[in-house]
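Q: Here's a chain of 360 amino acids. Please give me its 3D structure as tokens.
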Amino acid sequence: MKKPQVSIAIVFLSLIFLPLSIKAQKKQKEILLIRSAHDYSDCLNEDYDEAINEIVKFQPDIFFSETVSPDNLYGAVIDRGFAKQEIAYLLSVNNLNTRFVDKEIKKWEAQLLKAPNNLYYRAQLMRALYIKRDMNYEYQKYIFDETEKTLSESEIQQYYKKINTEVASVDSLKKYCDYRQKSEYHLIAFPAAKKLKLNGFGHMDNQDDRLLFHKYWDQSIDKYMSNEEEVINIFTVLNEEETKYRQQGNYLKVLNTNSFDTVDYFNYYLPLKYSKNQEAAKMYEYFWDQRNLKMAENVDYEMQEGNHQRGAIIVGASHGRLMKRYLEAKGYKIINIFNNELEGEVKELLETKLFTKVKL
């Protein structure tokens, strides 16, 4: 029987492209980590443009916020109870049925791709997202406000008339969807996402254990906060330095240093060392770990499911240390937004002012 002929050219090309294929498959996914405070109302000199520009330069194809998915049982679902009256009002205009909210979201997202400056479409999307308790309604409200600044008064009034009639009272809708003006979202995340032309944010938070976490935190914290001189010394130093950096305008860069991990570690260190309820302190530590682990798992799931190569995360600074650890364990390359710029300064501060008062 005649043996089948194998083309030498095919074999040669296979040997060339196989290693390239394997290399492409193993390309490490990257995460730009932005550790942030939740309130910058007293950071009068902070420059957020550098952070915004770094995020835009990174070009993430998904941006994660510390918000809860509408499907999270103890997050958005419970949250609907707090917004029950507002949701009922928004549903009453033109009798929108909750069963069709997902279709409404897709419908208005598609319309906005064609006409991104249409405030009526934007308001419809805000309403649908709010009813679903998808926190992206806050981002849409930000875009609504920014778009409004570019329109003439007559254009705005025409949109408002249509929105008031067919969607909801503009004032009420804006009030429902508003977010703290001095938060990390309004100052950093939303402007960056708008420049990147992202439709919204990925949800990564997890609140499954929030009741147990707060229960054990309350049981451990009141046993040590007021009666240990070393604890008072630690908080005195930390508060003084935090105030200084907030006034100087580089607080965000301090939060994004490796040495800030040490500051974050005190969240564990203090209860475990000083609390008279050690069992509560250990359980507080456990549930904090679990929240961060589940957040990392949410990020990983969305990155894999959406086949995303580059993601950005903006998260409360105290989550950074554990999020970094868990995501690196899953194979992600974590990128510091400011390239650890103030590391030397923060490290020296800890060694000269904090470690002289306490030994880890």
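Q: Can you summarize the key feature?
A: DSSP finds 17 helices and five strands in the chain.
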